Each structure stands twice: as structure tokens, then as C-alpha cells.
Amino acid sequence: MKIIADAGRCIGAGQCVMAADSVFDQSPATGEVMLLAARVPADEVDAVLEAVSTCPTGALSTAED
Amino acid sequence: MTTETTRESHPARDTADEPRPIPLTRSCPFAPPAELTALREREPLSRIANPDGTTGWLVTDHALARKVLGDPRFSARQELMSSPLTARRAEPAMPGGFLFMDPPQHTRYRKLLTGQFTVRRMRRLEARVEEVTERQLSLLRAQGKGADLVEHFALPVPSLMICELLGVPYEDHEFFQSRAVAIFRLVQDPEESGAAYAALRTYLLDLVRRRRGEPADDILSDLVTGSDLTDDELIGMALLLLLAGHETTANMLAMATFALLSHPGQLTLLREDPSLIGGAVEELLRYLSIMHVGLPRAALEDVELADRVIAQGDTVTVSVAAANHDPRKFGPADGLDITRSATGHVAFGHGIHQCLGQQLARIEMRIGINGLLREFPGLRLDVPVCEVPVRSDMGVFGVHRLPVTW
Ligand code: SF4
């Protein structure tokens, strides 16, 4: 599974980092989402799906490879 | 099908239910008003009567709440809205007051701040929150038994933190806390709130000027030196952070303590296993939902929602409390259960206005609640539950005082 992050929609609320901090980080300057991994690690699938569903702006999505 | 025909195709339905004023009275301080629960079952998008004579809408279900708050066709500009509480229409947001703006204005201001509130930056602040909490806990103890938890703990901790981050001298807290009370009244006296705003603006203008001359290590100095914001914009942003940083977390800390002390089973669980605190905080945020009127939005165009049409110009109020108690999302949601997964609650809102300071609030609550339970093993209410004065008269729900003993 791939992760897609649309930084243009991100408002830096950090829900994604809370859900999976090995996959998501935020830019220290702008707070915008940054991906630490392009693919979802097997043991983080649930956490990443939680990030996708709790992101307040719909900035995150996943796609099958 | 055009929206016009949709609106005309439901005339019977739209007149059948007489719009009534928004339900606000809580019978239990912890649960949303019973009428809201009834409405959610019957009609999750229902019509309400506003004091200005218009008909507005009330959303009581979780999925619809997220839809409205995440939809750019609904505006946060307060001058476009009818209030469910007063016939007076609000003024347009002051410069910098981005909570009441839409993109692109909102985006410009918020982006200047988001870097300051990232999860990692807030985690680095934990040690400082610990220190402030410890100090405040010993001051609470020094009151002797029978102290007010709001005055000696719940208010000072977030107040000290936001003052320090923003760069506002904490010595002045009595000045701005008393002004904040006038601003957060549910139904404001225009003269009193006008005077409170004016006093705060004068105070902040002086501070902005001082930071221009002599920048320090705080958010206000960063904004002064690192952006092209005007004095008016800086004051507006500072005012927003100062007010938001005070009332919300302070009331959550006090209400969370009140709720735990009134739910001994949950209290014991958390005392025995402090590592439950992360989930407990999310559950307390969900359960207590202190934005008790809700979040209002104005429709910028006709919007079809739940088989109805919200006409352009109509105000929709999203009941955060009702949405957070929706059993379709959270299961039997009326009880406090610190072991439940409360993820996805809308206590911090949803969409582009979702709370900027939420990570700080979470840290303050985690450290504050666990510290309180650890340092005061015998903590209990000093008055019967129904004698705790609740803030039904304020925009942010909570308690005016929480008399405790130990
Ligand atoms: S949860 Fe969404 S809005 Fe928040 S930081 Fe992550 S991507 Fe951005």
C-alpha cells in the first residue's frame, strides 16, 4: 500500500503523527505533513488507516501498489 | 435535479416540524442535553429557530458533523451567520482572527503558526509542562484542604504555558483573565465585551511594540520578526491564541477531574494504571465536549445534505457534544469509559479549523491529570455533585469553581 499526502490541504493538526509517528512527520517550519516512508510498513497498516480517517482535511489517502 | 426543485419537492416536510430554539440545558453536567439525543435519533439534521427570526439548522450526528465541518461550501465567517442565541449579528473577524475566516485569508495566518505547534515540538515541551504542573500542585497543596481546583490548578497551568509560549507576561494574568470572562459569555453585553476587547487590544499593541524593539524567544517575537504582519494582524492573532489557550484547556482540566471524581470506577482504573492516560484524555475530550453550543457555519451556496437542502445564507450549528455521543460511531456512548477507543471525536473540531493547539492541550491534560492523581491519592469533591457551579452561561462549558479536598 502506498501513502499519498497532499501538503496543500494539510493544516498541520498532527493527527497523522499521533497515529503513526514512524510514517508521518511535520515540517518544523510549516507544520505540513512529511512522509517518512512511501509505502505502509506491514505493522503500521491500522495506524496509517487511522491517520487517513482522522485527518481533518482529507489530505491523506492510500493506494494499492 | 437542480437544488431549486429539490427544495420545492419537500414543502410538506419542511413545514411539518416547527423549528424550536436550540436545546442547551444539561440535566447532567457531563452529558449533552437529552433533547439533543432525541433529535439525533429522529432527525440528525433538524431545523432550529434563531432569535433574529431566521430558521437555522442543527447537526447532531457524527458523520454529518464531519461532513459539514470538512466542506468548503460552509463558511466560518461570523458576519454571515445568524446566532442561535442572540438576534445580534457578529462583526467581521478582526485582522488576524483566522478562526472566523475562510481560505485564502485563513490559510495565510494559520500557516504562520502551524510550525510552532507540531507534534514533535510539543513533545519537546513536555518537560516544561511537567515543571509548571509540579509547581502548581505544590501551590495547591499549600492552600490546605478545601481548595478551589480551578483557581489553583486548572486555570494556572494552561495560562502559564500559553503566556510563556506566546511571550505574554504571566504577571498580567488577572487582567486578561477577567477580560476573557466578558468575551466568553454566551450572551454578551455588547458594551462589556466591546470594552474587554478594547482593553486587550491596547495591552497587546504595547506588547507587540516592545517585541519589535527587543525580540525574545517566543511566538510573538517570531511573528514580529519573521513575517510582514501589521500591528493589527499581530494583535488579532495574539488575542486568538491567548483566549483560546486559556478557557478551553482550563475547563477541560477541571471538568475531567470533576468527571473522574464522580466516576469512582474509572478513577480507580486510571490510578492503578497511569499508562491509560492517553486514551483517557481522548475519552474525556469526547465525553465532556465542552464546546457545548457547537460550531456554527454559514452555507455559501445551496447545499444538499441528508435529503434536505440547506439554502445559501442559512446557518448550520454542529453540536460537537451530540456528535461525540453518537452511538453509531462510538457504541453505547453515554457512559465514561476510559478504555474505549474515542479516536475520531470532534472535540477539537474537524476540517481546516481543527484546533491548532490540540497537541499542547493533550500534553497539559495528560501530565496534569496524572500528576494530580499521583500527588493527591485522597482527592475528592468537597461539595455534593449538584452544588458544583457549572458554566451554563459561558460559550465554553465547564465549572466556575471545583471545591476539592484530600
Ligand atoms: S492529519 Fe492531515 S492535516 Fe493534520 S498534519 Fe497530518 S496530513 Fe496534515
UniProtKB/TrEMBL annotation, chain A:
Keywords: 3Fe-4S, Electron transport, Iron, Iron-sulfur, Metal-binding, Plasmid, Transport. It holds the Pfam family Fer4_13. It comes from the Bacteria. Its cofactor is [3Fe-4S] cluster. Coiled coil: none annotated. The keyword Metal-binding applies. This is Ferredoxin. The lineage of its organism: Bacteria, Bacillati, Actinomycetota, Actinomycetes, Kitasatosporales.
Automatic annotation (TrEMBL), chain B:
Residues 1-20 have a biased composition (Basic and acidic residues). The lineage of its organism: Bacteria, Bacillati, Actinomycetota, Actinomycetes, Kitasatosporales. Residues 1-29 are annotated as: Disordered. It comes from the Bacteria. This is Cytochrome P450. The keyword Lipid biosynthesis does not apply. PROSITE patterns: CYTOCHROME_P450. Belongs to the cytochrome P450 family. Transmembrane segments: none annotated. Signal peptide: none annotated. Gene3D superfamilies: Cytochrome P450 (1.10.630.10).
